Amino acid sequence: MTRILMVCLGNICRSPLAHGILESKLSDELFYVDSAGTSNYHIGEQPDRRSIAVARQHGIDISHQAGRQFNINDFDTFDIIYAMDQSNYNNIIKLARNQKDIVKVQKILDVDTNFANKDVPDPYYGDMGDFEHVYTLLDAVCQKIVKELTS
Fold first, then answer.
1. pTM, full prediction
2. Is-catalytic flag, 14?
3. Which one of the listed residues 13, 14, 74, 85 is annotated catalytic?
């Protein structure tokens, strides 16, 4: 089983969406998807209501997810770790113990050459349009991830 972790800052906006989107596109018999935040701001909380609403509009239920903080053991648990932006990528890499940990981590948008070297914008202080934009970005890149993982 391939284990994939999505990581943003608080684990309430971007990474829960990425988690739900990718999970909806992959077989749960072959893949396990989870999400975490680099901060401890929202441990145990549901995703942001706007993330839940946007996901629901696209037929995905993320309301069961609970925020948790990324920890060093995640390097052992997960095969692939996707950071939503450069800041979170840097925070994850700071915890890496060795090169084996580092090679597991990449910025999610780098999967798609059209978006390489870009960050998934944090919609927290925005409106529903910002959450929809994040959903659209993540949906497109998750489609590329699925193609890579299943071909």
1. 0.97
2. yes
3. 14
